[in-house]
Structures are given as structure tokens and as C-alpha cells.
Design goal:
Blueprint: H1 6-18, E1 21-25, H2 32-47, E2 52-55, H3 81-85, E3 87-92, E4 112-117, E5 129-132, H4 139-150, H5 156-170, H6 180-194, H7 199-207, H8 212-224, E6 226-228, E7 233-238, H9 240-246, H10 253-261, E8 268-276, E9 279-286, H11 292-297, E10 302-303, E11 307-313, H12 316-330
Parallel strand pairs: 1-2, 1-3, 3-4, 4-5, 7-8
Antiparallel strand pairs: 6-7, 8-9, 9-11, 10-11
Helix pairs in contact: 2-4, 2-5, 4-5, 5-7
């Protein structure tokens, strides 16, 4: 059973008790796991009666996280030098400072930092403390373990948030393999149900109430998909014109990846979006053996073996051949 060691729990408890104020932040373009992890940490700080500010560079484009946006700010509160010495920075579902995005008036330099993350490509920033478990299927699950280890059972509200984040990153448990961590996560999720969580409600929150425009865009992206490397790789892309026509809100990339990976013989899928005339973001997914984090790392990205992201300069018409070339090295 995956139980956080007393040393790890003591480290985080000492970090909390040492500081009088906290900044809590996750990666830019947050997903459900990122938001839930931040809110889970907020619940821990509430239990310690410690004040904090939740920060996010956003944007909150996903419909399932939109309701949580008012709890976050993209402008850091001003802190004088005395206050900075008493402030702790907690980074979750991320460890690289550049992935935090643009926060107005942000100056994290020199702040005591604690990281809780689960990404394979992650590493602790200089002089930071923390806990990174790349085998953990979701960061929210790790936050649950910290809460249970330091405080005890979660409230129903916090348990619902943690289940929401866990289900977001595991595809409602579809991505779990036969591993000790998967077994532990399922056991932890069963505890969330005992705290009052209704799995059906969480599923509905994640998958329903999508804007009609996203269904139309999904059709466009599917029609544009092309197979490479003897059908083992499938790639599609979104243009700036697509974004203008269908909007950027309420994206449902999970449905797109499910459909692309369901094609017979496909082992990996890539979705690129042209954000500006000179920059692209993208998502990479694989079914099993292919480690897409290796590819993402070559394009200023990272993540997990079967799910990673990238953000890089370039245009889709030149990036796609470059990405296919990298996949050809490992497939």
C-alpha cells in the first residue's frame, strides 16, 4: 500500500508550520488534476489555519473547471521583504517554474518552495523541497495522501474535488495498468466514496454540458487526421481560423484522443494547435508501450509516458514532419 513516509509528511508539516502565508500554484492551461490539487492543498492549509492565495495563469478553457476560476487569481499579492521571508510557495502538478505561466506582479525568486508532483519529466527546482512520484497516476491522489496523513479523513467537499482531479488524469481509471500504484489509487478512491463522493456525479461533471461548438470542432479535427509510420501514429491539427470559428472554451481533447487511439493499429496520437502565427501547443497520447514524454521533451514539453504536452515555436506544417521523424526513432 502506498503510504507517504513519516519523513515526507514531517517535511511538509514543517514547511507549513514554518510559514505564515502561502502562495499555491499549478501549471498554466490547468486541467482538472491541477485545479483539484491546488484546492486540496488549500483544504490542508485551512486545517492548519494558514492564509494563502491561489494563483493560476489560466486560461480556464475547459468547461469542467470553469466554476473554480473565481477561487484563483492571476495577480500575485504584493509582499514586502518581511512578508516574503514568512511566505511559502507550494507548486503542485508541476515543478518547472516556466510551466507556471505568466502571473502578474509575480516574483517567486528566493521564496521557500515545496513541490508535489507526479510528472515523469519533473525535477525539483534549485533549493526546493518536495515530493515527486512519477508512478502516481494523478497528483490529486498524492494530495489526498498528504491530507489523510496530516489531518485525517477528507470532508465531502474536498473529497469530491480530489475525486474530480483523480478521474480527470486517469480518464476515469481507463489509463490505469496492473501496478501497485494503480491498486493503491483505487483503494484511495474507494475511501473518497466512503467520505460521501458519488462517482456518477463526478463523471457527469467531467463529461457533460460541453458547448455544441466543441462537437463541431471535433468533427473537423477527425476529418483532418492522417496516419503515419505504417498506421502506428495518427496526427491532427487545429488552425488559428478553427479557433476563431469554434472558440477556445470548453475543449474536450479527451474525447478526441479516445477516438484517435481507438483506430486499429494506432499506438500513438498527436494533436497540434496553432495558437499564434509562430507558436503551437500540442498533446501526445499513447496506448501502452510508446513513451510520448520522450518526444514532448524534444519540443519544450514533458509529462508522462502515455500522456504529455508541448509548447513550442513553429507552424504545424513544419512541426508535424519533425514530430513524425522523432516518433520514427522509437516506433
Amino acid at each position: 500500500m502506498s503510504i507517504l513516509s513519516s519523513e515526507i509528511l514531517d517535511d511538509f508539516k514543517a514547511f507549513i508550520t514554518k510559514h505564515n502565508y502561502f502562495l499555491v500554484i499549478g501549471h498554466k492551461e490547468p486541467d482538472g488534476d491541477c485545479i483539484a490539487s491546488c484546492l486540496g492543498i488549500a483544504a490542508i492549509l485551512d486545517a492548519f489555519e494558514k492564509p494563502y492565495q491561489l494563483l493560476s495563469a489560466g486560461p480556464f478553457k475547459r468547461s469542467e473547471i470553469k466554476k473554480y476560476e473565481p477561487r484563483f487569481s492571476n495577480t500575485m499579492d504584493f509582499l514586502d521583504e518581511s512578508e516574503r521571508r514568512q511566505t511559502g510557495l507550494i507548486i503542485t502538478d508541476c515543478s518547472e517554474l516556466f510551466r507556471l505561466g505568466d502571473i502578474e506582479d509575480a516574483d517567486f525568486k528566493g521564496l521557500d518552495t515545496f513541490v508535489i508532483d507526479h510528472h515523469k519529466t519533473a525535477g525539483l527546482p534549485d533549493n526546493a523541497k518536495g515530493y515527486i512520484n512519477a508512478d502516481a497516476p494523478a497528483c490529486s491522489y498524492l494530495i489526498q495522501l498528504f491530507h489523510e496523513g496530516l489531518i485525517g479523513p477528507l470532508s465531502k467537499e474536498t473529497a469530491e474535488i480530489i475525486m474530480f482531479g483523480t478521474c480527470t488524469d486517469t480518464g476515469f481509471f481507463r489509463f490505469l495498468t496492473n501496478s501497485e500504484e494503480a491498486a493503491d489509487l483505487l483503494a484511495a478512491s474507494s475511501r473518497l466514496v466512503s467520505y460521501g463522493v458519488e462517482p456518477k456525479k463526478i463523471y457527469n461533471d467531467i463529461n457533460y454540458d460541453k458547448p455544441y461548438s466543441t462537437r463541431k470542432l471535433l468533427g473537423v479535427l477527425l476529418s483532418r487526421a492522417e496516419k503515419y509510420l505504417n498506421g502506428k501514429l495518427i496526427v491532427t491539427y487545429e488552425t488559428i481560423e478553427d479557433t476563431k470559428k469554434y472558440g477556445a472554451e470548453g475543449r474536450d481533447s479527451d474525447a478526441l484522443y479516445q477516438l484517435l487511439l481507438s483506430v486499429k493499429g494506432v499506438e500513438a496520437a498527436v494533436f497540434l494547435r496553432q495558437d499564434t502565427p509562430t507558436t503551437c501547443t500540442g498533446g501526445l497520447r499513447s496506448t501502452d508501450k510508446v513513451d510520448v514524454s520522450v518526444i514532448a521533451a524534444k519540443f519544450n514539453g514533458g509529462g508522462h509516458k502515455n500522456a504529455s504536452g508541448l509548447s513550442t515555436e513553429g507552424k504545424t506544417d513544419t512541426l508535424i514532419p519533425a514530430i513524425v521523424k522523432e516518433f520514427a526513432r522509437i516506433m
